[in-house]
Amino acid sequence: MRYISTRGHAAKTPDASGRTFTEILLGGLAPDGGLYLPESYPLVSPAELEQWRRLSYADLAYAVLSRFVDDIPPADLQRLVSRTYTAAVYCNGRVGTAASDITPLRWLEQPDPGHGEGGLAILELSNGPTLAFKDMAMQLLGNLFEYVLAKRGESINILGATSGDTGSSAEYAMRGKQGVRVFMLSPHERMSTFQRAQMYSLHDANIHNIAVRGTFDDAQDIVKAVSNDHAFKAKYQIAAVNSINWARVAAQVIYYFKGYFAATGEAGMAGRQQVAFAVPSGNFGNICAGHIARMMGLPIGRLVLATNENDVLDEFFRTGVYRPRATGETCATSSPSMDISKASNFERFVFDLVGGDPATIRKLWSEVDAGRSFDLSGTPFFARLPAFGFVSGKSSHADRLATIRQTYDKYGLMIDTHTADGLKVGSELRTPEMPMVVLETALPAKFEETIVEALGRKPERPASLQGIENLPQRVAVMDVSVDAVKQFIKDHVC
Fold first, then answer.
1. What is the pLDDT along the chain (494 residues), one digit of tens a residue?
2. Where does the Threonine synthase N-terminal domain start and stop, copy by copy (predicted)?
């Protein structure tokens, strides 16, 4: 398996082949500013799907990842995934449950094929240490980084940006890891109180939090600018853990397979029964993994993209216009992890949409990088869009409150604000012929203020996280400045 850049051949090696998995693991962006993708997607046959149905989560992770990784010995890769995906790691999130299944499926409405009812379910992805779906990939990434760095005798400085959940997931996965420092940017005062406390209360020597006076997009732009300074990146061994990192996306592909198997139930259904997935999406990483699973042959009938008031992606899938918003146009909402107006992973999907043509991607993203929009409506590319199975919708604060109330009253289930966005849009776009599986984003404890507004009561939280907001916090606050962030990194690298 070799990897190429969405923007051309700057990712090629001297012998004109693509780079390997471990070569791109630590790098984040390709040297030309593009994102890494495999030269071709590995295909999974219906017979293989039936075999995979019976696997544990760890064994399924190995089956999926081994299709993308050929430069880590199989026995080592098996050990890495077996050490990552354990009930011990994924039992901290949901009060009163042991996550032995890692990603349990909870039916809200059971399917009834005889009456044309496809069913409605939530795939629980938030049993990890930071109560968010990001743990599903980030815990693996931490183990992969430590393994590769030990083999090479190297160290790295991770630079990332978070809108709320990636930061804490990365920091909890990397804290104490040998050869790894983390510099995590977040938008100042634009995350929930719990999210800030999760990150800023960590005092590990290798963890550094930076709050920038701007939006997530400002923070992400800084990360990209530093990554595109090739001399600085090389000198300070800058690596990435955001979903621009291919390993993050590959790890997220796994739970689409697991969710599919849980939703279709009995053996013999793989390859015949289609499933729809509703995905709350801001940066397009989570739903991009679903797109890749579908390209691999998983029978996903629909990928339902749900946005909040920052509806850049919904606008594209409805109109063909991709119009990133300026900082002043990006709303602060009650689903803050989706307060994003430049979707970093979107480039990967558009690369597939335009037939893998890097020249077209360079042209389109020259507009995006200059702060302008592009319009594919009326082009053959937009005409191809339905073939990829995407539909979309958006949700507002009022919608979130109503969905949280309705879900609690009707099903006895408390959900977080982002999952509410997914459930609201997914419910509107259900079709009777296939189950609708909503991907859970986080546990409601992370967004206590809005849960109280919706339900008049506080959500439960694990005992280990009681009173986390009262712990001492350590964070550097600075203006939106690439130079200031570079200087901070210089000052904190030994």
1. 899 999 996 445 554 467 899 999 987 789 898 999 999 999 999 999 999 999 999 999 999 999 999 999 999 999 999 999 998 889 755 655 544 589 999 999 999 877 778 899 999 999 999 999 999 999 999 999 999 999 999 999 999 898 777 889 989 999 988 889 999 999 999 988 988 999 999 999 999 999 999 998 899 899 989 988 989 998 999 987 777 899 999 999 999 999 999 999 864 454 568 999 999 999 999 999 999 999 999 999 999 999 999 999 999 999 999 999 988 899 999 998 899 999 989 999 999 999 999 999 999 999 998 989 999 999 999 999 999 999 999 999 999 999 999 999 999 999 999 999 999 999 999 999 999 999 999 999 999 999 999 999 999 888 888 889 999 999 999 999 999 999 999 999 86
2. 2-85
Kindly report the pTM of this predicted structure: 0.91
Between CA 272 and CA 265 the distance in angstroms is 12
Residue 136: how many CB atoms within 10 A of its CB? 28
Say how far apart CA 224 and CA 281 lie, in whole Å. Answer: 20
With H, G, I as helix, E, B as strand and everything else as coil, classify residue 141: helix
All residues at 6 or more sequence positions from 347 whose CB lies less than 8 Å from its CB, including other chains? 6, 34, 35, 361, 365
Tell me, yes or no, if 424 is annotated catalytic. Answer: no
For CA atoms 452, 454, 455, 460, give the dihedral sign. negative
| Cβ partners under 8 Å of residue 242, min gap 6 | 28, 160, 161, 162, 166, 220, 223, 248, 283, 285, 344
103: tokens are: 């990603």
d(CA 143, CA 136): 12
In degrees rounded to 5, what are phi and psi of residue 358?
Answer: -65, -30
Domain spans in the chain, listed from the N-terminal domain onward? 105-131+247-455
**Do residues 442 and 123 make contact, with C-beta atoms less than 8 angstroms apart?**
no
3-state secondary structure of 376: coil
Q: How far apart (Å, rounded) are the C-alpha atoms in residues 134 and 125?
A: 8
Please name the residue that has the structure tokens 């020249």. Answer: 359
Give long-range contacts, CB 8 A cutoff, 24+ apart: 85-90: 85/56, 85/57, 85/58, 85/61, 85/139, 85/140, 86/58, 89/128, 89/129, 89/139, 90/127, 90/128, 90/135
Selecting among 12, 134, 151, 342, the annotated active-site residue is: 134
| CA quadruple 270, 274, 276, 282: dihedral, nearest 10 | 70
The answer to whether 285 and 345 are in contact (CB under 8 A) is yes
Three-class DSSP category at 314: helix
Q: Which amino acid is it at 42?
A: P
